[in-house]
## 1
Amino acid sequence: MVIIDMFVAMAKGTGIANFSLAHIIMICFGILFIWFGIKKKFEPFLLVPLGIGCILVNVPGTGLMDVGGLLHFNYLGIAAVIYPPLIFLGVGAMTDFGPLIANPSTIVLGAAAHLGIFVALIGAKLLGFDIAEAGAIGIIGGADGPMAIYVATKLAPHLLGPVAVAAYSYMALLPLIQPPIMKALVPEHERKIAMEKMRPVSQIEKIVFPIMMILVVLILLPPIAPLISCLMLGNLIRESGVMERVANTIGGVFLDVITVFIAVAIGSTMSAENFVNMQTLMIVILGLIAFCIGTASGILWARLMCWMSKGKINPLIGSAGIAAVPMAARVSHMVGIQANKRNYLIMHAMGPNLAGVLGTAVAGGIMLTLLGVI
Amino acid sequence: MAIIPDTLTGAIFLSIFDFITCFFVLYFISFFIRALKFLNKEPKSASKQD
């Protein structure tokens, strides 16, 4: 009898006894993320650890996400807003702002492509979320993972998991989401437009740019100081030319490692208990709508610029106005080269793409100010 | 303290205000970026010397 009780106790202690259908669904999602990362090569640095985090947190009884658990400590990296500025530091160190400096007129595309944020915000309010939650959901449309985490942490920390998952998942899936919208909204002859070569940008311009941006943006919008200051510090380290080893490290290995940590942390918020509900489904759908509308509004604004410039601007660069650096610019280039094999849009699309980072920061900063976070 | 009321009208007002302000802030920043080119040395005078 004692032996049977021992076996029963053993069985109750395994994960099998505590599994539910919701756990199995979430583990399948985790496997799907890993499959997309490895097989389809969609942002593997992001999707593979995201999938692993999702699987780990949905095996019952491990206690990894309980206070003191390994995943809980890792989660504090996003909850305490430590990882997002570090990601921005790395992004700054690997980013050449030359295309934006050379062609500042495309900066408005970084605002135009953010219409999705506001449509999602109104949509979330209509679905019954309060205005702070709606703001956190809307910022998914900025396609900027660290900024989405930052704003969600400030406005609606309880929605951090679904907001971060939606933002990062759609960013990784941009090559699937954007091209059909781009092809539907831009006629073939406009997709073939080859843009003029940009002027060269000197090192002094690239050094002054981050210092100037820190002063201008932070004076205008202090709430976004942690992210923009790290982005520009990373960029200054890169452009100064005297810290090459540091720039290569923080823009390379360091950024990859932090990305893995942040992705595991986001995956670990996807527990069946918190995730399988209507609220999450609504957030995920609103996020997708925000991405689609942002892409469309960027494209339409770029078409207007194309018309005003008498065909000098390829409207495909408009979709890069949502942040997602450099994936959105790559998608613009990819669709452009399908229409015209000699059309190299990547550098032209990087301008609006980098403007998108600033645009999301500005939109988020205004939101935080008006919703009384500071 | 939140300036915007937690209503649908508040959400619409916030959205419109934020979208338009975002445009103007970025447009304003573009003037600073445009000014950066004046940091360059004049290339034409260099070519004349050549």
## 2
Amino acid sequence: MVTDSTSQTRSFFAQPWTQLIVGIICMVMIANLQYGWTLFVGPIGDKYHWSKAAIQVTFTIFVLLETWLVPAEGYLVDRFGPKWIVVIGGALCGVAWTINSFAESLAMFYFAGAIGGVGAGAVYGTCIGNAVRWFPGRRGLAAGLTAAGFGMGSAATIIPIAHMIKSAGYEQTFLTFGLFQGIVVVVVGSLIAAPAVNLMVAPPKVARGASRYQAGPLEMLKTPVFWVMYIMFIMMAAGGLMATAQLAPIAKDFKIADTPVSLIGLTMPALTFALSIDRILNGLTRPFFGWVSDQIGREQTMFIAFLLEGLGIIALANLGTDPVMFVLLSGLVFFAWGEIYSLFPSTVTDTFGATYATTNTGLMYTAKGTASLLVPLTSVIAAKGNWHPYS
Amino acid sequence: MTAAILNILAALMAIVVLKPMRSSYTSRTGAIAATPNLATR
């Protein structure tokens, strides 16, 4: 299936910004599989009287497959091109929520979670990989905008989904949104195309510190520099996931969770406020720091963002007893965390080239799955009341 | 606090470890451009 690039580059849609928009639309359409799931857990539990833990196994299966299969899906993209991988991935996402709409056993939900994980991973990995290939000089920004589509994509549909679950039931909601999201990805994803080979192997402009060398996945795995990045990704992802998981317990421990906070013309309980701005800032930071890294360098940006995140967590633990400071500092913590999803894919592609970018960035993305396995440790720490720096 | 330590360590690693390692790797390999075997659709 190796094809000549010429016919693709003549296509009206085979343009960098068009491809970026195509990728972002696909990412927005799969975002609900991760971020919208939480809305369905309660209604499913109410209907079948299963424990939340049992239902949430579905989500665990989804995340593990969505993360760990990306390298395999990336290999197929790098070998055969992105179009069919995205189309099949989108179809699987639609099928997954359709199964959820009539599932009557936990096994069926788990099966749907697996199908959805494979599909969402295929779309996610392909879109990120395609973005960094089309923008050799602005990989941070391109990866950031694409990743923001996933991070913020559910913001517009969370309210309609919540309303529909109440008015028509979760089954109808799964079916309606599942079919809609799946069809959009299939249709829009059919427009996705890889850039011409010469843009990948001999780009006219590359980011500071980038290499023109094209390393395959196995070659990349043999380099110490990849594993340094992998460990750093795990450290950052685990740190951010820990902070997210402990936000509510911290707010309750400080006894400010329900205290009203007024900021920028809005008044909400402190914890609700913090969680609301989480998704927005966590999305905005991806293109922002991605763009910054295109300007000043990847490592310099990592240093600034990661340090800001660490200091933000310390400040939150010390000053978060004030409800306003709690909201502001939690916002800082989320803002300084989300950029890992743009900085690492762009750094990997700068270092190992664009030819196998989808597989290579997919291998890096598995660090997110590894990090998620470390997060339960924080529950143990928090249970001992030892999350505070001086306790 | 574990999270803060992890983040600060990662920030230091970016400058102290990753930057020189990546610089060394890219300067060593930068001139080479392998012929790719891939599809473009």
